[in-house]
Amino acid sequence: MKQVLDFEKPVVELRGKIEELKRLTEDSEMDLSQEIETLEQRLENLEEDVYDRLTPWNRVQLARHPERPTTLDYIQAMFTDFIELHGDRLYGDDEAIVAGIAKYKGMPVTIVGHQRGKDTKENLRRNFGMPHPEGYRKALRMMKQADKFNRPIVCFIDTKGAYPGKAAEERGQSEAIARNLMEMAGLEVPVVCIVIGEGGSGGALALGVGDHIHMLENSTYSVISPEGAAALLWKDSNLAQHAAETMKITSYDLKKLGIIDTVITEIRGGAHRDIEAQAANIDKVLQKSLESLKKLGKDELLEARWKKYKQIGDYTDLPL
Amino acid sequence: MLKDIFNKKRKYASIPSQEGKQEVPEGVMQKCPGCHKIYYRKELERNLNVCPHCGYHHQQNAFERIKSLVEEDSFEEWDKYMVSTNPLGFPEYEAKLEKDRQKSGLNEAVVTGKGMIGNNETAIAVMDARFRMGSMGSVVGEKIANAIEQARKEKLPFIIFTASGGARMQEGVLSLMQMTKTSVAIQRLHADGGLMISVMTHPTTGGVSASFASLGDFNFAEPGALIGFAGRRIIEQTIREKLPDDFQTAEFLLKHGQLDGVIHRHDLKNKLATILNIHKPGGENS
């Protein structure tokens, strides 16, 4: 049973009604095919209405959907020979981040990604996909290894943010994130980042310095959660829906702002409706990305990365 | 009655303390948050905004900082007229920027340029918490990245003084991406063998703490400065426990191995000059 979000209730209800009618016709002599056809047409229109005109808040809800495919789902669907590797060699193994090596269409790659759980037990183990410094340091260790062996890196981004905890601060959350930003900038292999769920602030960015950044259609990328923004700016976290619009956090917003390269089309109703089909959509974009990046020499790659990030932002000069 | 145990009625009247009663004339006098003593602003300024009684480090604004470190008339400012736009069309953002321009006399929350520290020509960036709490939007990110790149090209050491509440909310994800922009610039500086010193002043938090502030060859802080990634209240709500008083202070970070040192403002110029000298090409002879 898929969890139903509030805005998709009319669709689910109508679908239920149609199924009920179909069952009725099976059990009786009545011919309701005309009615069913009309209702199916109405369902088609309603689905279009609901799913093809998603508000930013609807997309936030989809990005947070408990059944939304995670990094490990996509690793399983898109890569072969995956071997997970653990630990930062300094403190511990943070399961809010998974990392390892695999093959992508025969080519060796390193994969790093945030990992949420789909139920409470797994979420506790994964700390809801909110890493501590050791998670970021593990990620960096794997990326440095990829650099040594000349393997492209694929990063899956899916986190509410870096964990705001006492131990995280003591062990240098800021330093861990900052170091990843800087070290990723210097990697001499192609780095492709794909936002698959929530891209929450610095905690997302720490796996996000790529040559290409792609976003699933219903994922978000933001400096602060809509709830946090509403609380901070208007002292009222109930204005989160409004903040989701104002803060410009959807894939289409980021494309417009010149930050991301591609919006990856999602299955109607959200990626969780069909993981295989969604993985195939991602696959097409990733393949193209890696093919174009592999053509660049090391210097070209680094120069292009610098230019990509240097141009982000908006400013002007005061008239003299 | 149980109710009586929790009687809230006070049995005494509270009289404002002697210090509380003293009026503090705006602009002329200043009350120290550290020891609650009151003194002339002039006296404070002469002492580099450090309380002469308890050593509390008041914030220095960008030009006070530059004046206290850089040889007179040697400072050349970069990107002085760069100002923010309102890229997200955020309500009231322009008005807030204008208000802070008037209040601070600055065009944005960071001043960048180059000047002489002792006999070392140095690229400098100084953040100013009076402007939008020193938050980082497109202009702050761009000016800092430009300064780092200029330092790299001119082979100058780069020193940054951070003072920031973090990202500039009104510029949304564009402000987040300035963390990346500045960090990529720093990577290029380090790759070319450039020297970077970060001095974290009160406060250095959020996206600034989690990018350039932490990326120096040397990371120092001023005494008592608040430094951290997440806000204290958010952490307390998340872990449901009270945090120690010294949590996220410069001294706390030093104890946890996150800083090279905590430097009193009176010693700052000398220490920086020494480090610059040690790294000067041919430094063994100078």
Describe the protein:
The complex is a heterodimer of chains A (320) and B (286). With 320 residues, chain A is of the alpha/beta class. Chain A contains 14 helices and nine strands. Chain A has helices at 9-27, 33-51, 56-63, 71-78, 120-125, 133-148, 166-170, 173-185, 201-205, 226-234, 240-246, 251-256, 275-294, 298-310, and strands at residues 80-84, 97-104, 107-114, 153-159, 191-200, 212-216, 220-222, 262-264, 315-317. In chain A, strands 1, 2, 3, 4, 5, 6, 7 and 8 form an eight-stranded mixed β-sheet that branches. Chain A is globular, with a radius of gyration of 22 Å. Chain B folds into two domains: 1-58, no CATH class; 59-279, Alpha-Beta Complex (2-enoyl-CoA Hydratase, Chain A, domain 1). Chain B has helices at 2-5, 18-21, 41-46, 62-69, 93-104, 138-154, 172-191, 206-209, 232-239, 250-255, 265-279, and strands at 29-31, 38-40, 76-78, 82-84, 110-117, 120-127, 158-164, 196-205, 218-221, 227-228, 261-262. In chain B, the strands form two sheets. In chain B, strands 3, 5, 6, 7, 8, 9, 10 and 11 form an eight-stranded mixed β-sheet that branches. A two-stranded antiparallel sheet of chain B has the order 1-2. In chain B, β6, α6 (138-154) and β7 form a beta-alpha-beta unit. In chain B, α6 (138-154) runs parallel beside α7. The radius of gyration of chain B is 21 Å and the shape is globular. The model of chain B has no long low-confidence stretch (mean pLDDT 91). At the A-B interface, α7, α8, α9, α10 and α14 of A face β4, α6, α7, α8 and β10 of B. β9 (315-317) of chain A pairs antiparallel with β4 of chain B.
